[in-house]
């Protein structure tokens, strides 16, 4: 089969997958918008002592399916903020990824866009400071630093948001309230773990990732302010995973050459991950089907992140399953779910001990 015919076949499969995803999406009528938090997180989160001890004993780098099912599913989770690509209907690919994460055991209410009944991801053309303000709002009200995951132009938006939080574009960012859809008239929050006022600038996300970010998307004015700093990751993320497709014509790159790799400006843990060349840019996040396939789900459950590129021959399924992208992201999501819970539990115990 020629490269051209193989690419056309994969594109057809990708479009079909996106249509299936749209049909499989949970009907909006079955859900209601999540309610706004009613009390500070340190007061609201009162876990059973036995459950707290089990969480504190978890190894963040080795979280099993049983750990998710029997322990993490009984506790709250950091908000996951998904940002889809910029060409219709590629947003359906992020809907698929949202369903994958939920199918793996993540709480639905922490994946859905807050204040909505049927949105799973954010538009990359919206002002990035709005998402930065939402991250600050979520941290203040939920007690755990959110996660930020972007695809294509959504990946560029991830970098812009991290720069907003780092103060690259200005010293102040206003809080965004998702339940009234407006910026608040303040640029500070009350840190939920310390009780002290702090600026929005300086708030971190626990984990961020971007796939397929770059290329001709820079022709759009909304992306101009990240030109020259797309691969530079500020300290507004604890961990950042940058994903490159082995051959990605959309961003005009082959692999992840040293000059084009993401790099930390400070202490952020940065991982550059090369995905198989057979993956297709437009459909990388299409992963909802993995949770219903025993062999693919087992690979995702058992996957552990390493510095070595895994042998493609050992991966189950085909390129269109995107199992490596799903597994690597899921490993990081589980890791930071545990770390944020531990951080919250220890802060609450310190508060109780002080009183």
What can you tell me about this protein's structure?
This protein is an alpha/beta fold and 355 residues long. The chain has a single domain (3-27, 38-354), classed as Rossmann fold (3-Layer(aba) Sandwich), CATH 3.40.50.1820. Helices cover 35% and strands 14% of the residues. It has nine helices and 13 strands. It has helices at residues 3-24, 41-44, 49-56, 65-70, 91-103, 128-142, 153-166, 294-302, 323-354, and strands at residues 80-83, 147-151, 176-177, 182-183, 188-190, 197-199, 205-211, 232-233, 237-245, 247-248, 253-254, 263-264, 269-275. The strands form five sheets. The chain has a five-stranded parallel β-sheet with strand order 1-2-7-9-13, with helices on both faces. Strands 3-4 form a two-stranded antiparallel ribbon. Helix 1 (3-24) packs across helix 5 and helix 8 packs across helix 9. Mean pLDDT is 87; it is low at 1-12 and 21-32.
